[in-house]
Amino acid sequence: MVEAYKAKKMGGKERLHALLEDIFAGFVGCTDMPPIDFIPELLEIYPDAKVILTVRDPHRWAQSIKPVAKNTGLWWLPYRLWPVPGWRWLPTLMKEIGTCSRNVIAADDKYSDPYLGEFVLWSRSCSYGNLTACSFDP
């Protein structure tokens, strides 16, 4: 997935499509991060896909994501995770997710309300074949 972020940054659509097809081969669905950073590209590859956009209260969302965001940025985490093949790329992936999201919606992640609001607006602006929007209130 880190390679897909790099391809997206470099603008290599052919390479990005090939990487995404490889990453999602055998799956019938995806959710949350990081696939949401690739909505337009995934819809180009899978034009008949159904997209469900959930809209949450921005403050409650920020509270739920804070522990993850805080702990994936620990300086020692990459060294601790390196011996674990499935987890060693998590810190790099989280950095790419944050960078891509801020670039896509041009929001500052210090302020969750505008960040989530801008992301919802960006998501709705994507050209969806099949979009279902719903609220999520846990």
UniProtKB/TrEMBL annotation:
It comes from the Eukaryota. Pfam families: Sulfotransfer_4. PANTHER family: P-LOOP CONTAINING NUCLEOSIDE TRIPHOSPHATE HYDROLASE PROTEIN, P-LOOP CONTAINING NUCLEOTIDE TRIPHOSPHATE HYDROLASE. This is Nad dependent epimerase dehydratase.
